[in-house]
Write a structure and sequence with these properties.
heterodimer; A: MetI-like fold; B: Rossmann fold; three-stranded antiparallel beta sheet; 8 helices; 35% helix
Chain lengths: 230, 241
């Protein structure tokens, strides 16, 4: 198919328009994954290691939030950042920062829920041994995060994968402005509706390559975990 | 490695009881554990040996009665260590496991390499430093757990059936290590349901059955002339149910 050939050509020749979109997508999604990790990992560890009233309800809600509809997140963040919203004074709507915020909201529950499960499973294994070694709370958290690192990397990559592949929230809060807030997924939606299938397919090829790369990294993290940590 | 008497000894149980969910696990146990040859807890499965060790280690508080270590009701865990029946190795290398235990015991980083080499040599795991701990065989993991406990330089070491499920060669290796550390002045308190092992290692014997101490005292006297019917039956190989 000619569109396919042209799309591959765009990718192979490093088309500047295509790669500026790819670059912004990666910056936004990596930024969101980073912020989500900074919030989600300690949150997951905290829920895993503490007992409080309503903990089970919190876990159920957190697990449910892994399936947050991106358009709903986009709508809520849009309302928060719009001029009359509580964060309107920052003027972030229709900027890459707004997209990072929306994706952070989307990805944080994924990282928090997966890390909570991972850390709690490891804590059940380690509890007696760490108690016998008289390990204090801070070292306990550090130990669990370190020893679960290969599984936690999987959680981070799952979060990044979710961010880079979603379109619903960032199209609402970013606005899909050419050269400023246009990412791979929003561009594919737009270019397809315009009939510009070459660029849409080219971006699709890059997006799928990234998803495959993430899958390979997850597999690699698991293998490394088995090899180095047993 | 620790030598000599410890501030944690003697360990004194006074009318100690443990109740879990209304079920009595240990019942009015009064016993005195002092410096010297290993004290071996024997008794059938479910007799309360593991719970006894956890209470003596300080990991479990009695529901009634009291435990003292060197006359004190509270004592930090710094000079006591335990190897559980199914020890969990950390998801690290062999030397990573030992380095972690040394770090938690406050050993300086510059000292750790030398101590790791000593410990590996003591338990016969030299050459396996970089092996992931969970890839070791059952006997090797048990020896690593022993080394990890010894990394804390304990004055008292509790061992919960360390040779259960091991073959004779691995059992012999573990018993050799137990003897060696006992000779170095570490007080060993060990649970087993293997009478042969108890005969080989014990200085003192404590026979537990259904959470009650049936008989206790020097091993020679216990095996030569048990005072109770339960002890006689247990020694002769009858099943205590």
């Amino acid at each position: 198919m000619p569109e396919n050939v042209s799309a591959v050509h765009l990718v192979l020749t490093g088309d500047p328009a295509l790669f500026s979109i790819v670059r912004l997508s990666l910056i936004v999604s990596l930024g969101a994954a980073l912020f989500a990790a900074l919030i989600g990992l300690p949150l997951g560890a905290l829920i895993a290691l503490t007992r409080f009233y309503g903990r089970e309800a919190v876990i159920v809600v957190l697990n449910a939030l892994m399936g947050l509809p991106p358009v709903v997140v986009g709508l809520v963040v849009f309302l928060a950042l719009s001029r009359s919203g509580p964060l309107g004074s920052f003027g972030l709507l229709f900027t890459p920062q707004a997209m990072v915020i929306a994706q952070t909201v989307l990805v944080t529950p994924i990282i928090a829920a997966l890390s909570r499960q991972t850390i709690e499973d490891l804590w059940v294994e380690y509890r007696d041994e760490l108690a016998a070694m008289d390990v204090g709370p801070l070292r306990r958290i550090r130990t669990l995060l370190w020893d679960a690192r290969f599984s936690l990397v999987t959680a981070l990559l799952a979060g990044f994968g979710r961010a880079v592949a979603e379109v619903g929230s960032i199209i609402i809060v970013g606005g899909n402005i050419e050269g400023f807030t246009r990412t791979m997924t929003t561009a594919i939606a737009l270019e397809t509706s315009k009939g510009n299938l070459q660029l849409a397919l080219g971006l699709g090829i890059v997006l799928i390559s990234i998803v495959v790369l993430i899958s390979a990294l997850v597999w690699g993290a698991r293998r490394a975990g088995e090899r180095f940590a047993g | 490695m620790n030598l000599g008497a410890s501030a944690d000894l003697p360990i004194e149980f006074a009318e100690v009881g443990i109740l879990v969910g209304g079920v009595t696990i240990l019942d009015r146990i009064s016993i005195h554990i002092s410096q010297g040859a290993p004290t071996i807890l024997i008794g059938p499965n479910g007799s309360g040996k593991t719970t006894f060790l956890r209470v003596a280690m300080g990991l479990l508080s009695p529901s009634r009665g009291r435990v003292t270590w060197g006359g004190r009701e509270t004592s930090p865990l710094t000079r006591r260590a335990i190897v559980f029946q199914r020890p969990v190795t950390l998801r690290r290398s062999v030397s990573g496991n030992l380095g972690y235990a040394l770090a938690t015991a406050g050993v300086r980083r510059s000292e750790r390499g030398r101590r790791i080499a000593e410990l590996l040599s003591l338990v016969g795991l030299k050459g396996l430093e970089s092996r992931p701990a969970r890839r070791l065989s059952g006997g090797e993991q048990q020896r690593l757990a022993l080394a990890r406990a010894l990394a804390r330089d304990p004055a008292v070491l509790f061992l919960d059936e360390p040779t259960a499920s091991l073959d004779p060669a691995a059992t012999k290796a573990i018993e050799g290590i137990v003897r060696a550390i006992s000779e170095r002045g570490v007080k060993v308190v060990m649970a087993t349901h293997d009478l042969g092992e108890a005969r080989r290692l014990a200085g003192d014997i404590v026979l537990l059955h259904r959470g009650v101490v049936i008989e206790s005292g020097p091993a020679d006297a216990f095996f030569a002339g048990p005072a109770t019917d339960e002890a006689k039956r247990f020694i002769s190989g009858d099943l205590l149910i």
